[in-house]
Structure formats: C-alpha cells, structure tokens
Amino acid sequence: MRVRTGIIGLQHISPRPGTDGALALAMANVIISENLVEHAFITEHVLGYDEFALSVREFKPAQAAAICGINAPEIENLARRYAKHGPSAILFGYGMQRYANSGRTVRCIDALAAITGNIGMPGGGANYVQRHWKQFLADLSGREYAQAKRLFPWPALARQIMEAQDPPVRSIVVTRSNPLNQLPNINLARQAFKATDFVVVIDFFMTDTAAEADLVLPCTTFLEDEDIVISSWNNYANLYSGGY
Questions:
Q1: Which of 36, 44, 93, 111 has the greatest number of C-beta atoms within 10 Å?
Q2: Could you state, in order of their start, the residue ranges of all structural domains in the chain?
Q3: Selecting from 3.30.565.10, 1.10.10.10, 3.50.50.60, 3.40.228.10, what CATH number does the domain 4-128 have?
Q4: Backbone φ/ψ region at 163: left (φ over 0), alpha (ψ -120 to 50), beta
Q5: What is the dihedral of CA 122, 151, 203, 200, to 10 degrees?
Q6: pLDDT digit string (tens) for 1-46?
C-alpha cells in the first residue's frame, strides 16, 4: 500500500501488514552489531540492554526480509540511516496496536529509540499517536463540573485505587477501556476492582472488565450513532451520521 506520506518521502519501505516488529528487531540487530548504539544514553537511562542485545543477535536482516517482504540491504540501510543521522523520529498510530502481538511490536519499536538515544530531544522519540483532537474537545470534557479531581497514572492504577484515601475509591465507571486485560498487574487490578462497592462498564463487548462488573451498560457502535469523529494525525473533526 502506498500512502500519500510515502509518495512525498525520499524513500518508501512497505513491510507486510503485521510484520513491523520483525523489521524493528532486524534493525536493532544491525545497530547493535555495527556498534551504532548510544552508549552514554544506555548507561544512564536503559535497563535490560544486555538481555535485549542478546535476544536480537540471531534475528538477522535476511530472516526479517523473508517475513517482511522487503530485501535485507534495505533493512540494513534503513537501520544505519536511523542510527547515524539523528535526531530521528518514529511516528506510528493506533493501527500499530490492532493485530496479534502488537503490544510487543510497539515495545520493539520503542527499543530502537532507546538504544540510539533518540529520546528526550527535539526531532526524536518514538511517538505513538498524535492527539491533535484534544484541542477541539478540551472544552467539552465537563471537568469543571467535577466535585473532586484526582488523576491516577495508568500503570499504577490498581495500586492507587487500593491506597486512595480522603475519600477512598468506592465505585468505578469504565468506558472505552479494558483495564482487567491491559494493566501491568492484572491480578492486582482484579483485587482493586473487587475492593470497591460498585463497578460499571459501558461497552458493546463482554470484555474481561465487563465480566467482573456489577452493571454492564451496552452502547452503540459507530454504525448506529451520530457523532464527532476525530483523527490522531490531523487537525480535522468530522460529523459522522452513522451507517443506517
């Protein structure tokens, strides 16, 4: 598939759908084997580098080429350009997490930024989703009407729920999410949810979280509703009239 961004780029490399992780691992193999890593950044900020370097040692470009449908020299040249000519930015959207093992794929791509030091600098980073739409919907959140405001970091959500005081968390409403499948420590998350008095889930699937809820409220899909549709990659908001 050749998208408009690929047309204006200096080079367009198109791996088979779902093989981005294999491409990232092969690039890491080249970067590490040719000593193109940023040692100072790794020493200061990266945990588990030695284990990662060992794990990608056998994942050579020729192996990835057969998986991705692109030739090995292209993978090698891409890895060298990315590592040598920084700062280098990686941009990817929601689709990267919409297939099997996609969470691991994102971690493999993030690792490229970590081992080359392309984190925390202008023009660098592994940037997952550009949330331009927030500037349009910021005034529609209704946060000014909230009686109390508390923000819990997603990775620590379960622990924060269990430790919260003044007041403690007594009820949970979940929408557009599946925390009992996505949080780092699912067993702890399940304990946190069970420790509350009432859990409500709004979803159109019986997710792992919905199965543990006291009340499940079904909602409409985009085919059944009229709504404002936003994009992660541009500044436009569209009115969608549904598919009926």
A1: 111
A2: 4-128, 134-240
A3: 3.40.228.10
A4: alpha
A5: 170
A6: 666 666 677 788 889 988 999 999 999 999 999 999 999 999 999 9
